[in-house]
Amino acid sequence: MAAQMWTCTGLRWSLEGPELVWSGGRRSALTWGKRVAFGVREDTVRQCVGARGHACPTQTPVPPRSTGARCEECARLDRAHSVAADTIADDPRPYRVYLAWFGPGLVKVGITGAERGSARLLEQGAVCFSWLGTGPLMAARRTEELLRAALGVPDRIPYAGKRTVRAALPADPEERAAEVRELHARAVSLGNWPESVLREPCQVTDHMADFNLQRAEPATGVVTELVAGGRVAGELVAAAGPDLHLDTGGPRGVLVLDTRLLPGWELMPAQSEKEITFPTKEFSARQDGLF
């Protein structure tokens, strides 16, 4: 009998927690202590996942380390219809501007649809955040650019930077919130906000418990890519953004698996309790360069 195969479309966050989404719409809720185990079919390559719900017409292979899982043409089509591309200026829905904190010195400003609530912040792995204001899309975008320049913070932070600071996050929630409070005060004091954006008071939301980072052992490294014939099996001890923190046993302990590496591969169940044969990379002992 042929082995059962699954294709993963990614990790999604809701107020109930993280879940893996599979082709066809099936979802697997992820809870702390859950066994996560799968392998990649041998003699196979990773293929483009297509764009906007349509399959890639050329079934183009994509690099194993790509976090987008799309060929150049499908990536262009997907981005052309995104909020980030500013191609939907007449979107009537309200948008919220936020400050997100990922660790000491790692703060960004961004926007998200108001109806999504805090889901976007969970998906990005924000350890804590506060809303700054609400308004129409283009006004929210102008506010984002204004604050980015005025506060000297970026509008995006690479995941590599986010995950390497998680092992040294402050235990005190007030200490975690301090940079957000300071930057929020500076932001709302600026006098040239777009008139259609309503400023919001500083109310810091902390995600340490949502991610289970306060209870889990710090991760020691990260899976760099999936490979044909490789497999991983471990206990889920924490999750943040697209990252699953898995206790894979042995001297390496907890490793980070970026679930953006999964789409495009044909996956099958793995039988072992704790094991990993995918390539990994240890985190550097010194992170001074991040700051």
Low-confidence stretches: 286-291
Average pLDDT over all residues: 90
Shape: globular
Number of helices: 6
Portion of residues in beta strands equals 25-35%
Short note summarizing the structure:
This protein has 6 helices and 16 strands.
Task: Name a few traits of the molecule.
291 residues, 8-stranded mixed sheet, 16 strands, disordered C terminus, alpha+beta, 5-stranded antiparallel sheet, 28% strand
Structure characterization notes:
The protein is an alpha+beta fold. 19% of the residues lie in helices and 28% in strands. It has six helices and 16 strands. It has helices at 72-80, 119-124, 137-151, 159-164, 173-188, 208-211, and strands at residues 8-14, 17-22, 27-29, 35-40, 95-103, 106-113, 128-135, 198-199, 205-206, 221-223, 231-240, 243-247, 254-258, 267-269, 275-276, 280-282. Strands 4, 10, 11, 12, 13, 14, 15 and 16 form an eight-stranded mixed β-sheet that branches. Strands 5, 6, 7, 8 and 9 form a five-stranded antiparallel β-sheet that branches. It is globular and about 60 Å long.
Topology diagram in text:
Elements: E1 8-14, E2 17-22, E3 27-29, E4 35-40, H1 72-80, E5 95-103, E6 106-113, H2 119-124, E7 128-135, H3 137-151, H4 159-164, H5 173-188, E8 198-199, E9 205-206, H6 208-211, E10 221-223, E11 231-240, E12 243-247, E13 254-258, E14 267-269, E15 275-276, E16 280-282
Parallel strand pairs: 10-13
Antiparallel strand pairs: 1-2, 2-3, 4-11, 4-14, 5-6, 5-7, 7-8, 7-9, 10-16, 11-12, 11-15, 12-13
